[in-house]
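Q: C-alpha cells for this one, please.
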Amino acid sequence: MAIKKLLSAFFLLSVIFLCPSFSQNYNKVDQIVLKYPKRFDTTEELADRIQKDFSSDRDKARAIFSWMAFNINYDLNAFLNPQRSQGFSYRTEEEKQQKIKQLNDNMLQKAFKSQKAVCEGFTVLYSHLASLTGLKSQIVKGDSKTRLVDIGRKTPHSDHAWNMVLIDGKWRLIDVTWGQGYYDSSKGRMTKEFAPIYFDTPPEYFFTKHFPDSGEYLGDKLDREDFLNGPLIYNKLIEYDAQVLEPKSGLIEVKNGDNITFRFKNISKKDVLFYLNKKNQPVKIANSKERKGGLEFDIIYDKNIGEYITFFMDNNSIASFQIKQK
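A: Here is the predicted structure, written as C-alpha cells:
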C-alpha cells in the first residue's frame, strides 16, 4: 500500500523544476566544498577560496556550482510575485551597457547576501564567480520544459536562464537553479536536493528540457518542434544515461486497441519498469524484450490509459507521453 500511495502522489505534484528522485551523488570537489562556510563576506573571498583549493578549470567550475547549489535557495516568493521590470534611459551604447552591468551587479550581490534567487540571480552570480576564478562563461535565456502540459505546447516561452562555461576549450552546459532543488506543490514549498546531473549536462539531454531563445547551440540550429513535442524526461533517465528511442514524439495519437511500441536505451529486463493507469494503479511491463542496446515493449491502448502515460523504473519516474485518441 505504501508504494501505491507513493505512486498516486506523483500525479498530485506539479513541479517548477525537474523533480529529483535519486540519491545524493557527491564527487571529491563536492566533498571539499561541503566543508566551506555557508556564508562568505564577499564573492571575492569565496572565489579566492576556490582558487586556493582547485587548479583545473573543471574543478573550479564544479566548486562554484556545488557551493551555490548547497547554499543558494530558490526564491519561491519572488517567482510567484515577480516585481515589475526596471526600466532605464540612456544616451549612448556605453551608458546602456554600464546600466545593465549595474543592474546585474545588484542582482548577483542580492542573491549572494540573501542566499535566495530566481534563475536570473543564479546565472548572474555563477557568471560573476566564474569570472573571478578565471573562467569564461555565458548566460543563456530560453524556454524550459518541466510539466506534463508542456508536452506538445504550441506557444514557446522565455521563462528560464542557465549558464555555459568554458572548460578545457569546450563549452559546457550548467543549470544551477535546477541543481539546487525543486518545488513540491503537494507540500507548497521548495525542497532542497542536490542534482549534480545539471553540471556539464550532455546536450542531448539538456535540450530536451531547455531551448535557447536564439534557437542555436554553438552555431548549430536546434529544432523547436522536437523540443516542444518530445516526451517529458526526468532526472532518473539522465542519471542512468538512458534515452527514449521510440517513439521520438511525446504526442501519441491512437485508436482503441492500437499497439504502441516503446524502446528505451540502456534499460534492461532486470530493471523494474511499469506505468500508472487511469486509476493511478501500477501496471508492470511484462512483454519486454532486449533489442539494439535497449528495452522494447508494446502497450495496447484502451480505456484504462489516461491522457498521459508516465513510465517508472525502480519507483522513479523516467519519461512521460501525452496520449490523444483519434
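A few notes: The first strand starts at residue 73 and ends at 74. The longest helix spans residues 93-114.
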